[in-house]
Amino acid sequence: MYHTPVHKLPNQLRNERQAAIEIAAPRLTPNAVSDYEVLDGTAGEIDEFEYYQALQRQINAGSIWHMQGSMGRAAMDAIESGNCVLGVERFRDYWGNLIPARTDVKNGTKGSRLFVKRARGEGWARAMTQL
Prior knowledge:
This protein is mainly alpha-helical. The protein has helices at residues 11-21, 32-40, 48-61, 69-81, 113-120, 122-129, and strands spanning 91-92, 98-99. It has a two-stranded antiparallel sheet.
């Protein structure tokens, strides 16, 4: 099979190939099992903040995008509602779709720290970005 060298590709395709190189691989965090228990409801009684902390840790690690579909949808809902920020790095989900990093989105839009600050306040935004 013949592959076109990157330097001979049109600019847009070249940029997409270069961006694909910079995609981080999902990784397990030390709390991955306990976070999974929190997210699937088997960890017992937890408060809202603990839930979103677990979700944010898995967003940051990229592993949430490879868990069962309901967890990925919960992460996206949390980002769109301003409860969580996008991760520090770009990731690909199970299907190969690009999940941008928080620096890839315009400040104040969904997934950015400012969006979370406006939705939940400075303390919440600080806590989510420091995980």
